[in-house]
Design a protein that fits this description.
It contains twelve helices and 18 strands. By secondary structure, the protein is α/β, with parallel strands linked by helices. The strands form four sheets. The protein has a six-stranded parallel β-sheet with strand order 9-10-11-12-13-14. Strands 3-2-1-4 form a four-stranded mixed β-sheet, with no helix packed on it. The N and C termini lie far apart (54 Å).
């Protein structure tokens, strides 16, 4: 009887691994395209794949039959009438709020990873809030890991959170829990369980990061900061309320989050990073153009600090936000067109290294709106967050196209940069031999009108609804497996994996 139990256990394990895509996919697979983004150029190439990895890059005319083995063609545009399709490494979005466990009415791993797949995103990194419990200790991390099971359509990494008094959890969350980094706030986050940190809290956490780097295989664990301070915001908000400013006007909200709040916070992070030398820090969702010079000067002086901005700050402008449409609210806010142009300058000169979604969805009532799309919301009361996970590639490509920026920049900004930030660039990023065979196939010359009801998000409301964008995603491939094709309304393959900390950050 015992032998049958053993046989059943082995069978069940093999079945489970197959269902999750965790099996030895030794069969050779091939991709061929006229426009493959590789080593900073777009050229006709063939790609060889085995066991989910890119194992070779050949000429477009390479004869696969010479390999003397059976192979599967994943994609071949040789006979296609569509000559414009571009193949690049799958997008990596290192700033996503999935909100599971605890707030799955906002989003969840199933819907978030489905939306990612439909947008050509093959890896996301989940923030430590707004899940409940927040991911600020090892136990809550295990709760989140458990909530992911059987839901991942793309690969997912997790971040931990730093709050007052939890520095003793850091090593365990890294070494046993496999988090990719940590995030903290310098002002109230909006979630009571995730309070802001002060200088003492930051220094305690940095001491842990230094210890990890020195004693554990030179492991560089990134510290991310929501960089705004509270006093300028409180002062501005109190003044606006006293003046009876209209809270349904976007300019009222914009004035309530002045750039100085970001500038002061970023200056403080730079100061602490400089003092601690070997601890790498990162400014999330940079909005203030006035802080660009601060970051550039610090980088030039060798301070290990980086910054990201978002799809929204590089595309939307405060001047174009409709009256009462709180779908456009985020923190920090979308700012003026001039500010947006300066952020683009910082992208081009390399001060800002990567672009992410900061996907932060919620239910429509928290936006102070109703489902009829006819209601008018209060910007000062509405939840801050813009849903854009599924639309990042066309948003940024549309801007690049309009600005004459080469398409090859997309790979560094949307794939390599985010992967490098969280130490995944040994596996993820642009197309490279040895990395996971993650690809997005898209047509940069084809446009579409955003229809929010067709998005795969849980809450189908978008600030981009009705907008024309260029860059239609035709197919998304994860570790050599096609997971999405244009027009799919549901992602059926559940082969995503949780990604564990890698030491490769250089």
């Amino acid at each position: 009887m015992e032998i049958w139990k053993v046989i059943f256990s082995i069978w069940f394990l093999l079945f489970q691994n197959h269902a999750l895509g965790i099996y030895n996919d030794n069969k050779l697979k091939v991709i061929r395209g006229r426009n493959v983004m590789y080593n900073g150029h777009v050229k006709p190439l063939s790609i060889l794949i085995r066991n989910g990895k890119t194992i070779g890059v050949k000429d477009y005319s390479f004869n696969f039959k010479k390999l003397n083995e059976n192979y599967e063609v994943l994609f071949d545009d040789c006979s296609s009438k569509n000559k414009d399709l571009v193949i690049m490494g799958g997008l990596v979005d290192s700033h996503v709020h999935v909100n599971e466990p605890g707030r799955t009415e906002w989003e969840g791993f199933e819907s978030a990873t489905s939306a990612a797949a439909a947008g050509g995103v093959t890896t996301i990194v989940d923030m430590p809030l707004n899940s409940s419990p927040v991911t600020t200790n090892y136990k809550s991390l295990l709760d989140k890991i458990d909530s992911m099971k059987g839901k991942l359509r793309v690969d997912v990494g997790l971040l931990g959170g730093i709050i007052p008094g939890n520095s003793g959890e850091i090593k365990k969350m890294v070494l046993q829990g496999g988090v990719l980094g940590f995030k903290s706030f310098l002002l109230p986050s909006g979630i009571d369980e995730f309070p802001p940190v002060n200088e003492t809290d930051i220094q305690e956490a940095m001491n842990e990061m230094k210890s990890l780097k020195i004693h554990y295989n030179n492991s560089d664990v990134i510290m991310m900061f929501h960089a705004e301070v509270e006093d300028p915001i409180k002062e501005a908000t109190d003044r606006l309320i006293k003046e009876n400013a209209d809270p349904k006007l976007y300019t009222t909200y914009l004035q309530s989050r002045p750039k100085i709040a970001e500038n002061l916070a970023i200056n403080k992070v730079i100061e602490l990073t400089s003092l601690n030398e070997i601890v790498s820090t990162h400014i999330v969702h940079l909005s203030s153009s006035e802080a660009i010079g601060l970051i550039r000067d610090a980088m030039d002086q060798g301070v290990p600090i980086t910054a990201e901005t978002t799809y929204n700050y590089l595309h939307l402008t405060s001047e174009s936000v409709p009256y009462g449409n709180t779908l456009f609210k985020s923190a920090p806010p979308v700012r003026e067109k001039q500010n947006k142009d300066l952020l683009w300058d910082a992208m081009i000169n390399g001060t800002i290294k990567l672009i992410v979604s900061d996907h932060s969805p919620c239910t429509i009532d928290l936006k102070q709106l109703k489902a009829d799309n006819q209601s008018i919301g209060d910007f000062l009361k509405a939840w801050g967050g813009i849903s854009s996970l599924e639309l990042g590639l066309p948003i940024i490509w549309t801007e690049c196209k309009n600005r004459g920026i080469p398409i090859t920049f997309l790979s560094e900004w949307l794939s390599n940069g985010p992967a490098k930030l969280v130490g995944l660039n040994d596996r993820k990023g642009s197309i490279e031999i040895g990395r996971d065979a993650d690809f997005v196939v898209f047509n940069p010359n084809e446009s579409f009108i955003v229809d929010e009801k067709k998005l795969l998000l849980k809450n189908k409301y978008s600030a981009y609804n009705g907008e024309q964008l260029f860059g239609v995603v035709y197919e998304t491939i994860l570790r050599g497996n096609s997971i999405y094709k244009k027009g799919d309304e549901k992602i059926k393959k559940i082969i995503g994996k949780r990604l564990i900390k890698s030491n490769l950050i250089n």
